[in-house]
Amino acid sequence: LPERVELAPLPPWQPVGQNFTLRCQVEGGSPRTSLTVVLLRWEEELSRQPAVEEPAEVTAPVLASRGDHGAPFSCRTELDMQPQGLGLFVNTSAPRQLRTFVLPMTPPRLVAPRFLEVETSWPVDCTLDGLFPASEAQVYLALGDQMLNATVMNHGDTLTATATATALADQEGAREIVCNVTLGGERREARENLTIFSFLGPIVNLSEPTAPEGSTVTVSCMAGARVQVTLDGVPAAAPGQPAQLQLNATESDDGRSFFCSATLEVDGEFLHRNSSVQLRVLYGPKIDRATCPQHLKWKDKTTHVLQCQARGNPYPELRCLKEGSSREVPVGIPFFVNVTHNGTYQCQASSSRGKYTLVVVMDIEAGSSHFVPVFVAVLLTLGVVTIVLALMYVFREHKRSGSYHVREESTYLPLTSMQPTEAMGEEPSRAE
């Protein structure tokens, strides 16, 4: 029987679609004319050849396919002594496993930012299609010499690696993001340029955030190197320099906002940032005469609103008190007016910045009674009704007497009225 039957080592990785050689070495065994060497994939015979020399070496080319990935290959010797009545003696080598792969010639698709600000992060994606087996590929992602912690996922023949790139202060400047995909001892690589920058500001400052009226306030805006700032439309003299303006604080400046814009050019792109600050001006209380009438004419027993408004910083308290008394009328809310409100009022706005007083006169017109006109109207109505009834009574009495008198100086004939006897054919009597 053969002393040694061994399959030579296979390639660590074999590209799919390319040939590799199976090689089996056999030492010993006789008679050689009855010794055969068989090359196997699984149990499939790939080649059968006689063992001729000593030691004998049998080879066979094999075209690698995806199905060969992980397949065991071996060789077997058969010493056929059946013609001599001794049977078939078989000896098999230890199997060897083949690993095949597919790695496309195209580089990976690398998606990364063109620029990244210091102390900020951004996702980076690296994808490669058409590789086999994708699960055994190795991915390396790096920002400069900083290796990124990548999460690798594969779906079919597609591999995707995702990582987060964080820019550090010592990396400022031009850098590269690199993605390497390695499989079967071969590598595909993609690179993208990345500019790491620092963009400080803009920072807007007030010399006095809360300034008394009449004081001088300085407003300044600054940013980092190479940054051009503009404060309320006025640009700084040069990039990297601050912009400033001064003003005398007035009441109209209370609540005023100052805007600063900053512009930085990075890799041909212009980046913009804005910032603002608000000024508070302290000024004494005032009452707007235009919205607070100094002479009011109202009618008694009506509802009105005293429309007076005060302003100031801090916001003042407004009270309106009647002169010579402690009577106070509400301001800005409806109240019922009567004749007792008639008089002069001192409307005073007060705060920690001082006081301001405005005199308001209320002229309340007393309303006339509604009883007198009604009474007179009732009397007139009763008089008219009485006269009409009297005339009707007189007329009825005269008609009942049957005669009417005329004055003697009248040249007209006297009037007569027909008596009942005349109606019966009797001679009528002469009227007196």
UniProtKB/TrEMBL annotation:
The keyword Glycoprotein applies. The keyword DNA damage does not apply. Residues 2-78 form the Ig-like domain. GO terms for cellular component: plasma membrane. Keywords: Cell adhesion, Disulfide bond, Glycoprotein, Immunoglobulin domain, Membrane, Phosphoprotein, Repeat, Signal, Transmembrane, Transmembrane helix. The chain crosses the membrane at residues 371-395. It comes from the Eukaryota. GO terms for biological process: cell adhesion; cell-cell adhesion. One of its GO terms (molecular function) is integrin binding. It holds the Pfam family ICAM1_3_5_D2. It is a single-pass type I membrane protein. InterPro entries: ICAM, ICAM1_3_5_D2, ICAM_VCAM, ICAM_VCAM_N, Ig-like_dom, Ig-like_dom_sf, Ig-like_fold, Ig_sub. It is found in: Membrane. This is Ig-like domain-containing protein. It comes from Gorilla gorilla gorilla.
